[in-house]
Amino acid sequence: MSGCSAPERGVPALRCVGLEKSFGGVLALADVTIDFTAPGVVAIIGPNGAGKTTLIDGISGFLRLDAGRCYVGGRETTRLQPYQIVRRGLVRSFQDVRLIQQESALDNVMLALTRQREEALLGALWPMRHKAEEELNVTTARDTLRFVGLDDNAESRASDLSYGQEKLLALACCLATRSDILLLDEPVAGVHPDTIVRILELLRRLKDDGKLVIFVEHNIDAVRQVADRVIVLDQGRVIADGSPGAVLARPEILDAYVS
Amino acid sequence: MLTSAEMGKPYLSVVDAVSGYGKKQILNGVSIKADLGKIVTVIGANGAGKSTLLQVIFGLLPLWQGSLYVAGVLEAAPSPRALRAKGIAYVPQGNHVFTDLLVEENLEIGALAVRSRYVLKERRQRVLSMFPQLERRVRQSAGSLSGGEKQMLALACALISMPKMLLLDEPSLGLAPPSAAAMFARVRTICDASGTGVLLVEQRVRDALEISDHTYAVRGGRVSYDGPSAELRAGDRLRDVYF
Amino acid sequence: MEYLLHIVVVIEIFAILAISLDLVAGQAGLLSLSHAAFFGIGAYASALLALHGTAGYLTEMVVAMATAIAASLLVSSSSIRLHGEYFLIATFGFQLIVFSVLNNWTAVTGGPSGLPGIPGASIFGWQLRSALDFAAVGALQLAIVYLVVRLMVRSPFGRVLRAIRGDEAFAQSLGKNTVGVKVAAFSASAALAASAGTLYAFFSSYIDPTSFTILDSVLILSMVLIGGSGTLHGPLIGAVVLVTLPELLRQVGISGELAGNLRQLIYGAALPIVIAFRPKGLVGRSGLDGRFGAK
Fold it and tell me: What would be the CATH architecture of the domain defined by A14-258?
């Protein structure tokens, strides 16, 4: 359930080639071709309707693309189901936080952590078999919650957490899948400024741990603080790709937003 | 027509508004003012809080913290009904009209508060004269109108109640550039001719800056610019404000 | 005494049905109206095997369960990807189809007359004859079903089921094959329902389609919702309540016809009343969760 096989030298962690998607005549993605290498923190920005969430949905398998291919660690993932892509090492979060609201923070992370073989129906009938693994998972789950700063809230129901805490929990769940590539949809939107700082710090640490973090954002301040690469989408096309300073200074980028 | 005494007074004032949806906090302390006879525009990136602000003003979203003043008086429990009664009309995003009804029936709904048939007829005439394209289609189904015409109709429905202030949420959304330009021009004309104040939320920033007098930029749920629109038209300041 | 034991066996049968339905309806949130169909498939498979071949109780049960699993896969393959209400409708359709088959395929199922004279069964030489015998076997079966479902619910498998109920897209985004899990749970639930069919077939020694109608599916679902879905004892309590309540009325001396109508009234009224005032059921922890307009 992770990007376990060591990627070949020179193969990009994530590669998108010629991605296209239309919704009833409206072009959401038009010939999008991007290579991503790990580690890194890449921001995807662009005016509303530019195709950013469509891109995430397409790469993660939640949306069927009209054309184009995706490769994770050199292996094609284009037509795979979302759960299969996660097992290849790519995980995504949702713009409006998704969690199991009725369960505790710990149980949410446990859900993310447990591997396929431990979840088989027949395996349920031999509780002794997975007992040791469960205990190890509980420890790992608590460690993950500690990493995002939610260890005090481990037993709290997700529905009782603040919005910012929910986002931290969603991030913890992404980490628990052991994926090396994280696609985050607006990780700091609607979050208290103090929590924004925490989340950005975590993203930096993830990069230091060797991960590739790709995030869609409207908050340009956040992008400046943490991204080492910015890709601008406008009307489904990539119109810029470079360092934040360089990209944001270009007049046509501002034009894309304001005209 | 408004008296000169009424014009120029901040008809609408929001102070330190904090609000959001469910648990999500969008506005982190926003203060803006809008005057009669002037167009104030609110710009900013998506998710910054522009639409949220309008919904909070019109009472569609509760104010978690902060206050709303209309005509200098604190509005304790803002609701669409209360704000309509104070002469504030809201046109939400997306050219919403009743597509199953005729154009003239839509207008009647916009003027439901009007009791007198005579007044209604007079207002209908006045509003339709502002929108000749609609006047030609008055007995057509609203569903058969083009995007631009639907937006006109939505605006007309708001205007038929003779509001003192219009809250417009991205009126140019989905309109082709010529229709959008025409719409902006019309909004300026309405403001100049009848003294109606306009609080305009827009994504088409350059156009909005052109026709407005004052601009607020919202960023991360806070106001990052509060000044004359003229100063932003140049471009350099606009980048700092947006990015 | 005989009469009391009879009630006990009926309770045991419905308890098995309710608990097995809760595995999909309560845990995974997949409401289903086809449970009586699987119950019937199990009963008929057991009866037919007994009438035309061996009469070993356990063999009959295994065959019944296998048949039900096959049938459930038929439903799953076409409908498991459907969302909430549409899946419910698909199971509704399957229930009607199964009843129609049982009622019309006279050559095999005996049609409306059903299958009379089902021979007695034996478990490792122990002949099941009296009501007490069946009450004992029923108790053992119920205990095993309870244990099996409990193990499933408390396992990582159960956690994925509940996650599907909570937010299926989120579960998928964490690498869960939610479709596969739903198919597995639905099959297990069908198999357990079929095992109750075996008990019923030998206990009654006569079965006909009228015991496996859509109304019976509704009754089982009602037991789950009234008792409280999402727990193990909820469906158990629901089964006890809905089976004994009409029987108690009969004891009070109400005439047979009136009691029959009253039973319908109770079943019909109980569900909306519980949903309105105790949406989580008498002891449940999840209820309809906002689905179908419930709070």
Answer: 3-Layer(aba) Sandwich (3.40)
